[in-house]
Amino acid sequence: MACEQVIDGPSRRTEPISLRTPLALLLVSLGEIAAVWWWLATPITLARAPIDPNDKVQCVSYAPFRGEQTPLNEWTHIEADQLEQDLRQLKEITDCVRTYSIENGLDQVPSVATKIGGLKVIQGIWLGSNRAKNFAQVATAVRLTKEFPDTISALVVGNEVLLRGEMTTSDLTAIIRSVKAQVTVPVTYADVWEYWLRNREVYDAVDFVTIHILPYWEDVPVKAKFAASHVEAIRERMAVAFPGKEILIGETGWPSEGRMREGALPSRTNQARVVSEMLGLAKALKFRVNLIEAYDQPWKRRLEGTVGGYWGLIDSVRRQLKYPPGEPISNFPFWKWYMGAGMGLSVLVFAVAGITLRRRPWTPRFSAWLGVGISATSAGILLGIAADKMFYESYGWGGWLQWGMLLLAGILSPILCAQAIVIGRSLPSFLDLLGPREGRKWSKLSAVLGLTLAVTAAIATETALGFVFDPRYRDFPYASLTMAVVPFALLMLNRPQIGVRPIAESAFAGLLALSAVYVILNEGRDNWQAMWTCAIYLLFALTLWRARAEQSQG
Question: Which of 7, 188, 238, 341 has its CA at a distance of 20 to 30 angstroms from the CA of residue 126?
Fold first, then answer.
């Protein structure tokens, strides 16, 4: 009967079993997990509450889509009751909403706002390359303006249509002038601030200039702590370039979730800080600002990745303010649950190692227990972060499957590797898992460990190549990946000294290493998410490179 290879040598010695070392390491692990989570959850203090009903937001961008609702489907139609629910809630925090279209039921917004009372509407007209559709949008918006003159305060004729390249400047200005001739309210056009500088002739056609300044999306991303000052610097520059007309900041804000862009980090605390500082600056300097946006919009994730869905001041699922006045603002409001789960995982890792040794006549060296402790601590600290990221970053069944499998690998890896470390077993190769049936000589637990390794390698390589070829909207899986890879790397301490380097592991190692080097250069050193992820790619590449195919014997 085939048996597993257990490596004698420095990993173990035949002495009576002692609980002193693992218990001490477990206590250290639990203490470190608690300390890190206490630090991660520390709330921030702001001079001004981000959203304060006693000091309302001037205006917010409003899109009503919830759950699976999306304007990308032409048949999507939002009922008036849903609009009324939202607008009544928004009335508590703002006096104005900005819309972008009259499609999908949004033509009802002025009517509902009039019914509620106390809300102004900056009515948007969506323009694109379809001329017939453009004229229909214009006709409807003009009609609404005449029907609700006390509610619609301005018309925005086109949103970033020049940025998208769907219309020429001359065609746009012609439509703007046509609309102005039919209404009495002010008329403007909205685009990213650079496109106003590139298309100055639009300035002559509008009543006021509406610019979008999104520090996170700038070609050179701006850190959150500099976002408000960046917006003010751009506003002053635009005021000089276009004198004599009001400059409305039609879009500005910050995302609460998503991937870093250089030093620009989406987070709850950063979003709260940027919104607070932006509104304070607007009040002090007396300029108008419209925040993007009222509600998180899940459908935008299809176009812009995770970050696109989390610009809202209000959560899209619970329909509650992310930052209620008077409550502490933390990146991890459920940190106690995350800490408890991490501690539980750490205890489980040590328990599995201890149970494995109950019938073994030796005690592993301190280095083996140290490996177990490092695996348990890193997994315990990162479990909550990984679960949080999976919840916010998984989109569609494919996303949930991918990030769910990686998180599962991150949970199984320290458990299975702890068992292998203390008895001197080595990391299985892909050949052991997928090779000819007669050559497979591993137990079921070893097979699960090998499968966990293979899943981690596949997902790590897919994400690494994604950051090389299509990085803009991809999230960095640093938490789950670290949970999985660190135990694998530590298990390589039991690596056999015989055997050849497997081709499959070598190929994965090469792809991971080359991708990591490229991503480091492409993302920039300020992007700690990228640096962390690439460090784990390189550690995983080294682990796979050191693998040996002959790791079992009959």
Answer: 238
Q: Per-residue b/e over 192-202, b at no fewer than 16 CB within 10 Å?
A: bbebbeebeeb
pLDDT digits (tens, 9 = 90+) for 333-383: 999 999 999 999 999 999 999 898 876 666 778 888 999 999 999 999 999
Q: What is the DSSP string of 70-109?
A: -TTSTT----HHHHHHHHHHHHTTBSEEE---STTTGGGH
What number of CA atoms fall less than 13 Å from residue 66's CA on the CB side?
Answer: 13
Asked if residues 398 and 468 have their Cβ atoms less than 8 Å apart, the reply is no
Degrees (nearest 5) of the Cα angle 231, 237, 242?
120
The H or E element that residue 156 is part of is strand 152-159
**Angstrom distance (rounded) from CA 527 to CA 262:** 4
CB atoms within 10 A of CB 538: 18
- Please state the φ and ψ torsions of residue 455, each to the nearest 5 degrees: -65, -45
Question: Is residue 249 a contact partner of residue 233, using CB atoms and an 8 Å limit?
Answer: no
Adjacent-strand bridge partners of 301: none
Model pLDDT for residues 69-96, shown as the tens digit of each residue: 999 998 999 999 999 999 999 999 999 9
Distance CA 427, CA 110 (A): 65
